Amino acid sequence: MGAFFRNLLAKLPHNTQVMLWMVALPLAVAAFGWFELTQYRSLDDPQMREMTEEIAQIKELVAHLQANPRESVTINGQEQRGFVAINRLVPYQRALEAEYERLTTAGRIVRPAAIATIALGLLAALWGLGGLWGVRAAARRALQSRDDLVTAFTRWRAHLPRYLGVLLALIVAAFLAITVVRAAVTYDVFTGPDHVSRSGVKGQLLLLALAVLMAWGALTALWRLRRSLQVLDEPAAVLGRALTPQDAPGLWQYVRDMAHRVGIAPPQNVVLGMEDSFYVTAFDTVAMPAGQRLTGQTLHLPLTYLALLRKDAIDAIVAHEMGHFVGAATAYGQRFARLYAGMVHALHNVADGDEFEWGNAPAVTFGGYVLEQFDRAVKHWSRVRELAADQVSAQQAGAEAAARALVHVTALADVVHERVGEIARRPDEAGHDLIDQLQQAVLTNPLAVPAFDAESATAHPHDTHPPTLERLQALGQPLSPALVQAALAPTDAGSLAWVRSLFADSEAVQQSLLADFTSTARARNEETRTLLTRMVETTQDHIAIDDRRTMLWLFGGV
Question: Please, are residues 257 and 235 in contact by the beta-carbon 8 Å criterion?
Answer without folding.
Answer: no
